[in-house]
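Input record (one chain):
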Amino acid sequence: MGTTQLESVPEPKYWHLKTVLTEALDSEFSVGEILPNERELAARFGVARATLRQALEQLELEGRLQRRRGVGTTVAPPRVGVAVGTEQHAWPGAPGDDAWQAVDCVTAAPPASVADALETGRDEAVHTIRRIRMSHGQPVAAELLHIPASSVPDLTGIDAPSGPARARAVLRELHRLELERRDSAVELGSARADDARELDRLPGAPVLVVTTRYIAAGRTAALAVSTYRADTCRLTFGDSGAVEIHDSPERRAS
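The corresponding structure, as predicted from the sequence alone:
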């Protein structure tokens, strides 16, 4: 494997390097293979390590590479196509939502940003359910589902103090409300420490954040913040709630 020098190009050097690296990934490496270390790669392509890191970060963002704790940088498999259904009358935890697993439930005053989004008082108790979404036995998303105590007023009579049982009890009570609609927004973000740990990522890794407001009786009855792995997930919007594997056109053409 010889040394490849980058020619002078009008685009940023790291971006051109990304294109060269992509060609190398397609022709020289297989899925799961560990890349040489940064020093070797920088020497091969005749660039500074800072330039190399920019290119590697971009490839990770695009889902071509994965950084794994204790392993290094590996070639990523095709992204998982995760369907975010458009069904307007389905609460979280309803039939068909079994890809999500409830992990825990705590009740406390929420952060100010959550209280503002829920339009509740800063001191009003909110049930926060943590859920994990699985695909092919691997975690692909983590979620915080915030439900004001006023949305489940009869919950106090249920003997489920904590954990998954408490989460299921909160969801059962929530389902008593008539859901009018749900609104979702998607944005790119960085993994927080808790999400990174649950998703087996490094803190700061690129993620896709889906924020969903569930509306009942003209107000926000629940707020879900779902964090998807951007390196392995490709969100699709449709009526199906299924999770399927989709090869990207670029992968099929290579």
